[in-house]
Write a structure and sequence with these properties.
alpha+beta; 158 residues; 4-stranded antiparallel beta sheet; 2 helices; 24% helix; Jelly Rolls; single chain
Length: 158
């Protein structure tokens, strides 16, 4: 009887850890938004005409008020352009970028009525070749989950 209880407790602990670990994982899921697609296509055209190449892009499903971390390797002295496009119905958009030492190197904030509105764009030249983390967030009182976002990374070549 004692060994059965011990066995039951071990099974319960293993099962609990498995369930808990699944909830802690952030899964990158794409989304589809026609307005964001048109905006991203326009920006890709604009930046390509300005001497940039697109290195990475992703549509991401976001939750209001929660950051979505995006890790990217950057090379020292290279001129990069970053773009985040948030859901048009959100009221606030922010992007923070951190270097490898977790020092914030960029902070940008837009509100819905701003000229740029749902698009945050900024340039950056890293001092070291290392991974950086971009953390976009948007605040939307109507939709808490299922917000569409789009991130792009360009590199200056001309």
């Amino acid at each position: 009887m004692k060994s059965f209880r011990l066995f039951s407790v071990l099974i319960f602990i293993l099962f609990s850890q498995d369930v808990l670990s699944q909830n802690d994982v952030i899964r990158l899921q794409s989304c589809n938004n026609d307005l964001i697609k048109k905006q991203s296509d326009s920006l890709k055209f604009l930046y390509s005409n300005d001497g940039y190449i697109l290195l990475k892009e992703a549509s991401i499903t976001m939750e209001s008020e929660y950051e979505m971390p995006v890790v990217i390797p950057l090379n020292e002295g290279t001129y990069y352009q970053f773009v985040f496009i948030g859901d048009y119905s959100s009221k606030l958009y922010e992007v923070r970028m951190y270097d490898w030492d977790e020092k914030m190197v960029v902070y940008k904030k837009n509100q819905w009525g701003d000229v740029d509105g749902n698009v945050i764009s900024y340039s950056y030249i890293p001092k070291f070749s290392e991974f950086h983390m971009m953390k976009p967030v948007q605040v939307n009182k109507q939709k808490k989950k299922g917000l569409c976002g789009y991130v792009m990374l360009f590199k200056k070549v001309k």
